Amino acid sequence: MVFELVPQTEYAAYTALVSAVFALSLLLGPLLGGAINNHTTWRWVFLLNNTFLVGTSFTVPVIELPLRFQNVYNFSPFKAGLGLLPFAFTTAIGSTVASVAASKSRIPLIYILTAGTALQVIGFVLLSLVPTSEDVYHPQYGFQVIAALGVGANAGILILMTPFIVEKRDQSVAMGATVQFRMMGGAIGLAVVTSVFNSYTQSRLSKILLPDQLDAVLDTSHAIAALDPTLRSAVRTIFAEAYRLQFRILIGTAAAQYLATALMWQRKPLRAA
Fold first, then answer.
1. Residue 20 confidence (pLDDT) above 70
2. Taking a C-beta distance cutoff of 8 angstroms, is the pair 117, 257 a contact?
3. Quick one: 215 exposed, middle or buried, by C-beta within 10 A (0-12, 13-18, 19+)?
4. pTM for the whole thing?
5. Residue 227 Rama label (left phi>0; alpha psi -120 to 50; beta)
6. How many Cα atoms are found within 13 Å in the side-chain-facing hemisphere of 184?
7. How far apart are CA 46 and CA 102, in angstroms?
8. DSSP string over the chain
9. Do 175 and 18 form a contact (C-beta atoms < 8 A)?
10. Which of 73, 166, 242, 270 could be stapled to 170 by a disulfide with Cβ–Cβ 3.0 to 4.6 Å?
């Protein structure tokens, strides 16, 4: 709908603005959710989640990175949200820079998508190699930045491309379809990595924990802190390994964007007006 309200020359600027709003939702959602979880009932989180997280294409990192901080490093929910700041801020920056670059320099949009995909793959490879130690591995924040630049760039460019490849009368429908497929992809991706995570952790934790301990650990990260030091360390290592496995899956899904990008190739590459 935005593209029907502004001239074509302003598409890039408004794409950057809309994408920045989406990215800020990633920032505020985990922070407010963590604060609410600390100071009031967790049920209100679902209200904010619906408001801040709908429409994002960054579902898996947004959900799993804070969980990693809580389960592996014993961060509070609020501190875990703070740990997502590099990803959230850089996503907005990547989207803005990519949209402006596409408009000002007239770089073919498919080239930016290719570069964005490369950054995602590199970032997720690095995040999949984060050590399993309970000590915070600070370089991972830089890895977030690399991945987020690619995520933001591709998110912004895909929105920017939409009005250029459909007739004006179909722009609203096309934009709606873009958002819906993005949300569906995020939901499916989250379901896959969650299933893999649960299978990996349950099969290994069941060998070292009693049934009651296993149920408690899978229910809340606070139960991990109550274990004796040796057992606690082993549990956190298993969780860390499972999160690394999740990011290996994201490497594959990011790399698959190369195929999707290749299928968009034209003899005369599309450029932003």
1. no
2. yes
3. exposed
4. 0.79
5. beta
6. 6
7. 36
8. -HHHHS-GGGHHHHHHHHHHHHHHHHHHHHHHHHHHHHHS-GGGHHHHHHHHHTT-S-HHHHHHHHHHHHHHH---HHHHHHTTHHHHHHHHHHHHHHHHHHHHT---HHHHHHHHHHHHHHHHHHHTT----SS--THHHHHHHHHHHHHHHHHHHHHHHHHHHS-GGGHHHHHHHHHHHHHHHHHHHHHHHHHHHHHHHHHHHTTTS-HHHHHHHHH-THHHHTS-HHHHHHHHHHHHHHHHHHHHHHHHHHHHHHHHHHTT--SS-----
9. no
10. 166
Residues 224 and 231: their CA atoms lie apart, in Å, by 9
The Cα–Cα gap between 168 and 105 comes to 24
| pLDDT-above-70 percentage for the chain | 74
Q: How many CB atoms lie within 10 A of CB 20?
A: 19
Mean pLDDT of 259-265: 78
Residue type, 9: T
Which pair of structure tokens corresponds to residue 157?
């460019």
The tens digit of pLDDT for each residue in 226-255 reads 899 999 999 999 999 999 999 999 998 888
Q: Which amino acid is at 105?
A: S
